[in-house]
Design a protein that fits this description.
- The chain is an all-alpha fold.
- The protein has a domain at 2-52.
- It has three helices and no strands.
- The protein has helices at 2-10, 38-43, 56-72.
- It is flat, with a radius of gyration of 14 Å.
Length: 77
């Protein structure tokens, strides 16, 4: 998935990605199935904004902020 995200960011394709279960404390599969290293890899991609909210309130605010930024930039979100 990371190569396609990187290419979309480099080509400036207007995309909003939503990922879940990035913590070892979440999910039923245990720590071996939680890709906690992906956050650092995603932050290293040029032109890609990464938001990692910690709770429901931050998630709601982050979602509104991302959609507002996409709308202001003329993107369909």
């Amino acid at each position: 998935m990371r190569p396609s995200v990187r290419l979309a960011a480099l080509m400036d394709i207007d995309t909003i990605y939503v990922w879940t279960h990035d913590s070892i404390g979440l999910g039923e599969d245990g720590p071996t199935h939680q890709p906690i290293e992906h956050l650092a890899a995603l932050r290293a991609i040029p032109r890609l904004s990464v938001v990692r909210p910690a709770d429901a309130n931050e998630t709601a605010y982050a979602w509104r902020t991302i959609l507002a930024a996409a709308t202001a930039a003329g993107r369909s979100g």
